[in-house]
Design brief:
Length: 368
């Protein structure tokens, strides 16, 4: 019997360099068109809204500085998520790892070294933030490596544990008795504050993110460990056959991923809030997934994408204040952009091929 005619997806061996550049740009353009349609349905001129977002985020020095402030946590968490994704480890727990880094750094500033100088306290808080995020990612890493437990579920669920732990601390044992009922710890000592750029809120955490991107790029491109991560991500079976330590690497990569997110949490409490407080993150760890994918899991690309999405967030706040639109316009655009970019990625790496029916086998000849 002949096989039915139909269509199937076939993987493209190697997308052209031109297509790799053009397809994401077209996807983003289509996403902005789709977002503009929704804005128009809300009764506003999309061009005016987009213009207000651009002006509010990069149109003057204050807006540009605030965009850099939001770039910092998006860059660090995006790098953390990307290094795990490159090994096909789906770390969805950057939000919780950010909170654990903030908790560890806050404990160091408030209780461990409250009287230390800035030269000692800031590095100690950095180490504590890295450790907190790494330990929180260690849990799903070990469960995946040795028990084959899906890290997507465990890392996601641990987000809620970390956030609730933070809320318990700021409402309970770490609450500032002089806080007038507002949930939060007391202010950190002055030595715990990260240096800022002039009169802006741009702090040293941005330099942490840029340095981490360069180091991560070098590690992934120029070291044996980076090569092993790439091989394990492409073909885990081949990596095991070659004798690569897959289980140990899974744990270490997850810990590195969590450490970068923990450093983002340390940067937020030491550079912006100067205390541990409720709602420390508006979802940076989840937005990091978009940053990583739009940056194509490349550290240097993630720098640009983190800045663009930070501008989108600042622009969303701007249109809320000046045009009366909800700030949710920015997250909506983020989701639309991710949807279109992932669709473009599918078209870039796969093609639709028509399957021709196979001829039916000839009937055997009967003997006369």
């Amino acid at each position: 019997m002949a096989e039915a005619r139909g269509w199937r997806l076939e993987r493209v061996p190697a997308p052209s360099r031109a297509a790799s550049v053009v397809v994401p740009l077209v996807s983003i353009a289509l996403a902005l068109v789709a977002g503009g349609i929704l804005i128009a349905l809300a009764g506003r001129n999309p061009l005016e809204v987009y213009r207000a977002m651009v002006v509010g985020s990069v149109g003057d020095w204050n807006g540009f500085a605030e965009t850099l402030v939001k770039t910092t946590p998006l860059l660090l968490t995006g790098l953390g998520v990307a290094v795990a994704f490159r090994m096909q480890l789906w770390n969805i727990g950057a939000e919780g790892q950010l909170y654990l880094g903030a908790i560890f750094a806050s404990g160091t500033a408030l209780f461990l070294l409250p009287n230390a100088s800035g030269w000692a306290l800031v590095p100690a808080m950095m180490a504590a933030g890295l450790l907190g995020g790494a330990l929180w990612a260690f849990i799903p890493g070990v469960l995946r490596a040795y028990l084959n437990v899906n890290e997507t579920i465990t890392s996601l669920l641990l987000n809620y544990v970390a956030i609730l732990l933070s809320e318990y601390l700021v409402h309970g044992p770490w609450k500032d008795p002089q806080g007038y009922g507002f949930p939060g710890t007391k202010q950190f000592p002055d030595a715990a504050a990260l240096p800022t750029w002039g009169a802006t809120r741009v702090h040293l955490g941005l330099l942490f993110g840029l340095a981490a991107a360069v180091i991560l790029w070098f590690m992934l491109r120029r070291t044996r460990w980076g090569y092993e991560i790439s091989v394990m991500g492409e073909n885990d079976r081949a990596a095991r056959y070659a004798g690569m330590p897959t289980r140990r690497t899974i744990v270490l990569v997850m810990m590195l991923s969590g450490a970068l997110a923990g450093l983002a949490g340390m940067s937020e409490v030491a550079g912006i809030a100067h205390q541990l407080q409720r709602n420390l993150s508006p979802g940076y760890g989840y937005t990091a997934i978009i940053v990583a994918w739009l940056g194509r899991l490349q550290p240097l690309g993630i720098i640009l994408v983190a800045f663009l999405l930070a501008a989108l967030l600042v622009g969303g706040d701007q249109i809320q204040m000046t045009m009366g639109l909800p700030a949710a316009v920015a997250p909506m655009l983020q989701g639309i952009i991710l949807f279109f970019v992932l669709g473009g990625e599918l078209l870039l790496r796969y093609r639709l091929v028509r399957r021709e029916p196979e001829p039916a086998p000839a009937a055997p000849l009967e003997a006369s």
